[in-house]
Write a structure and sequence with these properties.
α1 crosses α4 and α3 runs antiparallel to α4. β4 and β5 form a beta hairpin. The chain contains 5 helices and 5 strands; from the N terminus they run βααααββαββ. By secondary structure, the protein is an alpha+beta fold. About 45% of the residues lie in helices and about 30% in strands. It has a single domain, classed as Alpha-Beta Complex (Ribosomal Protein L22, Chain A), CATH 3.90.470.20. The strands form 2 sheets. It has a 3-stranded antiparallel β-sheet with strand order 1-5-4. A two-stranded antiparallel sheet has the order 2-3. Bound molecules: coenzyme A. The site of coenzyme A (COA) has 8 residues, from α4.
Length: about 130
């Protein structure tokens, strides 16, 4: 049964401007520890890919916050919602801390897809209830 859906479009130029203004502090606010490692690996070699990575994570987290119906309000936080990559590169949502506990107590499962072009990144999230991953 579908619990919620969420979508978000993010202007990559806005993310680039925030990154240029605040540097790594901006990335540390948005990204989980696992995402930070991936961001550093991508961004060191290709700075534009680092900005795209930040933008897709930003949009996916906002889309997830809408799908669960909280918006960016506790227990939803940027760093407790991680967009990891499963085998073959498929994105998947991995939660941490109080957000993970909140989500599991409701027997929820999330599915996410992301896309980006030069100037925009977009994401779509579906959250199901009562489905057991496996
Ligand atoms: C839900 C939230 C993420 C919306 O993000 P936004 O970027 O401001 O706005 P968007 O245009 O992407 O989305 C707005 C839509 O989200 C939906 N929305 C709002 N609150 C929602 C909630 N709790 N659950 C699900 N959807 C929600 C509404 O449909 C809204 O459109 P409407 O006001 O016309 O009805 C916002 O409430 C929020 O918490 N934003 C925090 C963002 C932030 O901290 N940014 C920092 C930038 S560095």
């Amino acid at each position: 049964m579908i619990y919620g859906i969420g979508t978000d479009i993010c202007d990559v130029r806005r993310i680039r401007a925030s990154f240029e203004r605040h540097g790594e502090r901006f990335a540390r606010k948005i990204l989980s520890d696992g995402e930070l490692d991936t961001w550093k690996a991508r961004g060191t070699r290709w700075p534009d890919r680092g900005v795209s990575y930040l933008a897709t994570r930003f949009s996916a987290k906002e889309a997830f916050s809408k799908a669960i119906g909280l918006g960016m309000r506790l227990p939803m936080t940027w760093r407790h919602c991680e967009i990891a990559n499963a085998a073959a590169g498929r994105p998947e949502i991995v939660l941490h801390g109080t957000l993970k506990a909140w989500f599991e107590a409701r027997h929820l499962t999330a599915f996410v897809t992301v896309t980006d072009e030069t100037d925009y990144a977009a994401s779509f999230v579906v959250v199901e209830r009562g489905r057991f991953p496996g």
